[in-house]
Structures
1.
Amino acid sequence: MNIEQQIKTLRNQLSEHNYNYYVLDNPTISDFEFDQKLKQLQELEKAHPEFYDANSPTLRVGGEITKNFETIPHTFRMYSLENSYSKEDLEDWEKRIEKMVDGVVEFTCELKYDGASISLTYEDGKLKRAVTRGDGFQGDDVTANVKTIRSVPLQLRGDYPPLFDIRGEIILPFEGFVKMNAERVELGEEPYRNPRNTASGSLKLQDSAEVAKRPLECLLYNIQGDRVPIKTQFESLQKAREWGFKVPEAAKLAKNLDEVLEFVNYWDVHRHELPYETDGVVVKVNSLQQQEELGYTAKSPRWAMAYKFKAEQVSTVLNQITYQVGRTGAITPVANLEAVELAGTIVKRASLHNADQIEKLDIREGDTVFVEKGGEIIPKIIGVDFTQRDPNSSPTQYITECPECNTPLVRAEGEAQHYCPNTAGCPPQIIGRIQHFISRKAMDIEGLGGETVALLVNNGLINNYADLYLLKEEQIIPLERMAQKSAENIINGVEASKQIPFERVLFGLGIRYVGETVAKKLANHYKTIDALKNATQEELITVDEIGERIAQSVVSFFASDETIAIIERLKMYGVQLEISAEKLANQTDTLKGNTFVVSGVFTKVSRNELKKLIEDNGGKVSSSISTKTNYVVAGDNMGPSKKTKAESLGVAIISEDDFLQMI
Ligand SMILES: [Zn+2]
């Protein structure tokens, strides 16, 4: 078999396995075998860029960066649906329809998923473009991100039409959502509020590799096209399934409205058994011919209706409002409730968000409150039953002092959250910061977990992350649940963390607003902690992607003498507080002061490698051509609009070889 055939065979095999796993939910090989094949394909593609394919399964892992999402008009407008809330609403709708069309009307019933709407365009069986709903007339091109979603076919199967759009919803199953939040909490970040917003936020991430890490799914149910040989909505679901799309199984062809209501009533009860959020049923006139006769109002199709389930709600007594202090000092009020069953689980606590929310709803201890579980995993209080209120109760006084250290709280103008400013002395902040420092994406200290950190702090053995490096085995062994072996593991883990590169140490320091990506940018730009420490706010803002808010936070972080003392100690203990000599050796100033735009497909290095080469040599990478651009590095298939723009602005267009010559 020649190389090209080998590549094609691997691509076909991987697509097939991907389909079995993510669409049919029926894997036929192990994850290990799959990864082996994927790796093999990656290597072959890297060695033979001439066989590049924009829809290769290797692109599932992402890597493409989108700075500005291009606005794309929808070929077929994306309408929103009219809502109904009762049997009567549906009956009225049926009457209106029967006046407008002849013959028997049948309906398809489908579940309504709560996610981010998406429109996919397929040309000759290949995914050409993915566009968000936007305002219904035009949306954002999020193709690079959508390609990483495993259940979106990059190549169709069977007998598909040459050109069509298919619409559906990108959703985040509960299980994946809970897992993502657990990781965020581990990193000391705020958990996401609900799967829906998280799914739509994911589509607009700039780094598609980040999207690839999220367990998103794409459910499809609506085909649009000029020459698509389909006669009914129910048939279109079956066809879409045949072509390789993930189409929800829970769909029914109903001969009349009674059968529609059966479907509605069944799922009103059983929806909690589904792996993802559904908030209702979509009922559509089945015949496409009849759909055409019915047409559209200004906003919605007349042939479809959304039926919304009632959000599950219960009332219970609010016993007490307590307050939690996070790693950054943020205060979160929590409602402690009389235990009550809601949507199949026992609820004892509900989120109250912040002081404004409590004031707005006038929530008081002792009140009977209405609790709802909507898209959020954590139930929320949506109101008070004022008929049950004790006439002697008085409005809730939000705390003015930290519940943990009694320091007066502060609230910055325009911010909803109160903060405890006692960063150095407030126990949950001290513990939270050290927990963040040792977490997987920061120092990754093995053998040391969040609870152990709390134990060490509470026993007075450590008070900040620098203290970790002075820990001794004999101090740890006498503690609760500790033994020789676990103490050894901690000491070894701490020792090993001295090899963790600067950018991760910087992330671990826990500067507010400095996440993984920002830490990397700052580390690469300033190269040492001392240079970063001395940077002024004005200088920081000139660094790519660093805004006012981050700059301010960095400056105030280093303004504290205590922080400086801790950093000096980390330095002394051998923690990496500058970029390693090896990494520096690969960096030059050759391209300093030059801004590059990279466009097209390259043969000797990948697009990402090219960008890295530019940055390592002191140049700047920008995503769009402007008067500030010095060079456009053009590969094959450079976009014609970019080319025209570069020429009109007189920007030099150079080839990959020209560029490699420069460095
Ligand atoms: Zn405090």
2.
Amino acid sequence: MATQKMLKFVTIGREMPEKRDAAVRSEDFHEIYREFAAAKATEQASRCSQCGVPYCQSHCPLHNNIPDWLRLTAEGRTQEAYLRSQETNTFPEICGRICPQDRLCEGNCVIEQSGHGTVTIGAIEKYITDTAWEEGWVQPIVPAVERPESIGIIGAGPGGLAAADRLRRMGYQVTVYDRHDRAGGLMIYGIPGFKLEKPVVERRNKLLADAGVEFVLNANVGEDISFDAIRGKHDAVLIATGVYKTRDLDIDNADAKGVVAALDYLTASNRVDLGDEIPDYEDGELNANGKRVVVIGGGDTAMDCVRTAIRQGAQSVKCLYRRDRANMPGSQREVQNAEEEGVEFVWLSAPGAFSGHVTGEAMEAQESDVDEVGDVPTISAVRVQKMRLGAPDVTGRQSPELIEGADYDEPADLVIKALGFEPEELPKLWGVDGLEVTRWGTIKADFQTHQTSLPGVFAVGDIVRGASLVVWAIRDGREAAESIAGFLSGAARVAAE
Ligand SMILES: Cc1cc2nc3c(=O)[nH]c(=O)nc-3n(C[C@H](O)[C@H](O)[C@H](O)COP(=O)(O)OP(=O)(O)OC[C@H]3O[C@@H](n4cnc5c(N)ncnc54)[C@H](O)[C@@H]3O)c2cc1C
Ligand code: SF4
């Protein structure tokens, strides 16, 4: 009976939920894919071949029981599919929206390899949990027992929140500290609404608060409260602070007015989307409206910047990347979405210098005293250097090489630097010498237990891995919760002896 409902990949083609027309979606910050209707989700789930060794599952960082919940969906048993799906994933509807499925679960789907087109796993995962929210099946945690021990979690991104959820389920008292005024980490202030609408994150934050997780927001650890104070207050501590130091450019006029960091730009846009008043957006500094925009970088952050600039009404948006399309780190699906929306990619190109003009105000200042007031020019163009791909480096990746004499000026009113992120120097910032870091500055933590060099202190997510993915932060957070519980029960046993 079950198999009759499945294995339909031979007769039913692959379909994604409908994508909104590029001209229409470029006008707003809503998600670009519509919902699967129930019948379509059932039909698409029935394409799964239920193969004996599900490679999709082994390539999902959470090892989701994908074939199981696809079968339950195909059989119309959506509530059971939801229960199965949320056993392994704290935020299935978020992963369904923003995981790079082409590199993870769907990229390893067996029917894709036989030429039939992958099962649309991410879209079905999203459908199942969105339906669960609509039907009221998603309810706050009510722990079976309350335990006295408390855990302080620093960072309310997916890593910290996934751990908070698991620990609260076990009955521990959980406090989450974050320097921002809203929880969610990069899910709220980094990733734009057209990939992940803000209410989807906010309802998860509320669910955790309703379950008794205490949020202490606007609390910058190291400034407003010390790390030692948090350690003193709690029986265990989890560090989940992400990576935020922007990589920079060492070129002429690197700090020209109108050259901005990607995360400042995206945070302002997300805040406006959430209804906040942002002076730097209102006065145009972090607003692409009417401007010729150049974004530098080829990762997912760059893709989010170019598509945000289009939605803000930029006059033109160009993306400079020093390698070619095949060698960019960003998802090909996002490049296609960006191109449909009017972004122009300038491959094999790198910025050599920024040129600028001195504005009237600065000129007046110059006439009186340049040094006193400063002579920062306003960006007017990017000197573009053309590159070719040379010999592979030690990692096997072809290194870009400069083509002499091929430079040209690209006019620009706003330049957004999306060159990646590095960890802040936490031991120095927080004054904790004993917290060991790697040579890249990420926190050293055991691969499985997530224990750091300090007893009772654990670490997860980007601050350990370097810039990574939401799904990996969730996995780390869930695993660390188990280790913290083990640590606390060991500590309780010792205290009782
Ligand atoms: C623009 C952008 C787009 C992305 N798109 C995707 C995508 O499509 N799919 C995907 O899977 N991943 C994406 N990522 C990556 C993903 O967002 C991260 O890998 C993930 O959020 C890491 O989770 P985390 O919990 O480790 O840290 P974060 O999400 O960074 O959360 C860390 C939290 O710690 C807080 N914090 C930091 N320092 C302190 C302090 N001293 N005191 C108190 N609080 C502090 C921060 O305010 C933040 O809320 C994207 C990243 C960016 C920047
Ligand atoms: S969590 Fe991500 S990788 Fe895993 S099944 Fe869902 S979309 Fe695929």
3.
Amino acid sequence: MSETSPKLRAELEGIPTYKPGKPAAAGGQAAAYKLSSNENPYPPLPGVMERVTAAVAEFNRYPDMACTALMSELAGRFGVPLSHIATGTGSVGVAQQLVQATSGPGDEVIYAWRSFEAYPIITQISGARSVQVPLTDGDVHDLDAMADAITDRTRLIFVCNPNNPTGTVVRRAELERFLDRVPSDVLVVLDEAYREFIRDPEVPDGVELYRERPNVCVLRTFSKAYGLAGLRVGFAIAHEPVAAALRKTAVPFGVSHIAQEAAIASLEAEDELLGRVGSLVCERQRVSEALRAQGWTVPESQANFVWLRLGERTTEFAEACERHGVVVRPFAGEGVRVTIGETEANDIFLKVAEAFRETK
Ligand SMILES: Cc1ncc(COP(=O)(O)O)c(C=O)c1O
């Protein structure tokens, strides 16, 4: 028998593999903290745990494929028709469904760069071409340049607000001006994975923009503010026919019964969960101010992480953090993204940052 391997799609060649944040134990430290994946450091709420535990007893059954109870909860909360909501395996799953639904070989997907590292991956898988528009010098989306990059092959544009990994935002007036320039047959996806951490009143709620504009779709997740990263549930709010296309491109039964129950219980416990978000926002403030006092330039973050543009010293800095028991997320040659975590973890990170500055 000849030793040829199965033929795979040529588009898959050269796709960067998604790099998950390193686990906390990677440094071999006894008390290591993971600040590398923008997770919520708080453990699950007891009430959510109870619902999950009850749901576990039913895992011999398939979940409700339509996520009916969760969808109706979300529809009521946002004041949108049920048919405008689509759930998926995390918002990254929904983002991939959106690319699959709109883009294929010969098409173009525009997004800022650097931004969420899944965008190039899911675009390349679809066979479409990525058009990466550099962030401004202040690490903010360059919306004018993004609008200039639109061609008749553009199918989808991601606007990550706040942007991962810089934490920076685009505000109402500039976003509306941008949306006015986008042709109505091009889908704009407002990725609002970190929406609940925003305190800048000038940042618009994407759901308000969606109401007026049929080509705008909003992505949200239960992974960050609601602390359900491990259960994989996110959703989109979009007009028809986009929402219907999302149901077509979904992995059947992708959102487990456990995840659906946890999401509903989390919505019911929203006050408590948003209280935790408030504490993390205070920590973000404290960490940002302490870094600036040490002399660092820190872009104003509206998310649950901060960005240090370290350039050539990125890897060295990440290694120093790891040696002291905190794992951060380096982007070699560019900078590190550091999640706001437990106070002890943030304090260790601040100490490392201070010592590192002194060696500069
Ligand atoms: C901007 C952005 N969008 C989407 C996601 C995906 O999150 P999830 O798939 O857990 O909902 C992330 C995760 O880090 C993110 O940073």
